[in-house]
Specification:
Blueprint lengths: L4 E4 L9 H13 L9 E2 L3 E5 L3 E7 L8 E5 L3 E8 L18 E8 L4 E11 L2 E8 L14
Parallel strand pairs: 1-5, 2-7
Antiparallel strand pairs: 3-4, 4-9, 5-6, 6-7, 8-9
Length: 148
């Protein structure tokens, strides 16, 4: 049985400079074939909240489970990985190139704090599904006040 790597930490946002990412995103918007050293793409994701859990569903077809990484803390989830490009066919030229390859990274800020001890992740048919248990809401208690 293979496992998806899950890393727990305090700062899931520490990768690459913001300027580098902004420049790359700007040029990819103008021409998706343009990339700097690594091509960044953003897989589509759904996040929904149940009473006791938060569910994340990421569409990442073509990415091997060994190329995925999750970093989780109480407030955010970072999903990163790489979709590898298949070698081009010899003596062929592209007529259409829409599939995005290369490195991707998404940082998702959660609507409620989660219990990092109760996280599960599964990968099937190109979808990564993550289930995160919410921490119980703060419960208030009445404190009796004594005399003197």
């Amino acid at each position: 049985m293979e496992f998806i790597k899950i890393r727990f930490g305090n700062d899931p946002i520490q990768t690459g400079s913001k300027l580098e990412k902004t420049i790359e995103e700007m040029f990819q918007t103008l021409n998706p074939m343009f990339a700097l050293s690594e091509r960044a793409w953003k897989p589509q994701m759904d996040i929904y909240e149940a009473p006791d859990e938060i569910h994340i569903l990421a569409e990442i077809a073509g990415v091997g489970k060994e190329d995925l990484e999750l970093e989780i803390n109480r407030k955010a989830v970072k999903i990163s990985g790489q979709r590898r490009c298949s070698p081009p066919v010899e003596n062929a030229r592209y007529l259409l190139a829409e599939i995005q390859y290369g490195f991707f990274e998404r940082v998702l800020f959660l609507p409620a704090p989660i219990d990092t001890e109760q996280v599960s992740a599964s990968y099937s048919n190109g979808f990564l599904q993550i289930k995160l248990a919410k921490l119980p809401r703060d419960v208030s208690h009445s404190i009796p006040i004594s005399d003197g």
